[in-house]
Structures are given as structure tokens and as C-alpha cells.
Amino acid sequence: MKKAIILIGPGFEDSEFLYPFYRLQEAGYAVDVACWSDKPAAGKYGVPATPTINLENLKASDYEVVVVPGGHESPDRVRQIPKALALIHDMNKNGRIISSVCHGPWVLVSACVVKGRRITCYKGCRDDLINAGALWIDEPVVTDGNLITAQHFRDNPEWMRQTLLALKKID
Fold first, then answer.
1. Model pTM score
2. Hey, which residues are catalytic here?
């Protein structure tokens, strides 16, 4: 079965977690949720997410896609975990899909996968991406090869459409 992984920490944007969680399942993916703890993490508005795997046990070869939701607090915490950054780096190296929204691209900056790439994010993160060498594009959703990024949770439908299209190209 095809597999997806969503990387979270406390304070994730609830809709940016839930929307891809269910859309990927509808598309036939088994979806793992990874956190540094085995305890459920709560979203900004209280939605609980129970990890199915610890970040320390992740292998890029197990997944076709990694999703990094925003929410400010969650990406800021996830980007401090070397194993999460190694996963994203390895997935990028192997051409696997990396899909992120809002503040999530902060994690991509820390994983060193944005230099020279067309990318978008929440406008408050724009300078961080530019300073990391990304080509920031002011569009709701931007696809650059295996990297799909979106600005805001209101872009969830198009973000997931583009993510699923990218996954069909590598099937």
C-alpha cells in the first residue's frame, strides 16, 4: 500500500492537518502521523492528533509523500528535530513528494531543500525563505517538481489537488 507521513508538533493548524489526512486516505494512502512524543498533540483549536509513529523511527524509503502543516508553533518545533529534517532531506534527494502549507515551509528551510526552488508560504515566512535562497512566488499554490507549497488553509483544496497530481506522476 502507498504510504504518506504527516509531521506535526503541538499547535498545528487543525485544518492543514485534517484536510490532507483524509484526502490522502481517500486517494488510497495509508497515512502515518509523526511527532517526537507518543502522546496526542493538540492543534491550535483543540483537534487531537495521535501519532502512529515516533519521529525517531522514520525512514524516507517507507513513504511516497511527506506533509508538513503550518500553524506557527508546530513547524517551529518540528524544524528543531534532526530526524525530521533528515527525512525531508532524504525524501527530496530521492524525488519523493514534499507538500507543505502556511508556516510549514520553515521546516523545509531547516532541511536545506529550498535553495533555488520556486516556493510559496504564509507571507510572514517569506523573508526566511528568500534568505534561504528560495524563489518566493506570491501565489496560493506553487509546484516545483516534487515540492508543493501553499500559502494558507483557505488554499487546502488546490494544495491537495496539486499534491495528488504530483503523486500520480511518480506512480
1. 0.97
2. 102-103
